[in-house]
Amino acid sequence: MKQVVGMVVSNKMQKSVVVAVDRLFHHKVYNRYIKRTSKFMAHDEHNQCNIGDRVRLDPSRPLSKRKHWIVAEILKKARIYTPPTAPVYENVPSSTEAPPS
Fold this sequence. Notes:
- By secondary structure, the protein is mostly beta strands.
- The chain has one domain: CATH 2.40.50.140.
- The chain is built from no helices and five strands.
- The chain is elongated, with a radius of gyration of 24 Å.
- The termini are far apart.
């Protein structure tokens, strides 16, 4: 087996991730290139991978029933959206108070 590059689609397990690997092959009858996706379970020792990361997998001995790959390196980290926090103002009177008369 050789190294493969794919995208992390699940990291809900401890020390394991699921990586989707895309490949193109030429269909002889249709004379077109077709994309196929394979999903591999891989060992992530330090739980560093997040969903959307691009990773390189190395083959290894069987680690469990479905896990035969190890995350060799994270090629590109995913951009994770963090909503902006509202600024906190102090000593500002609220608008619910009655206007001075």
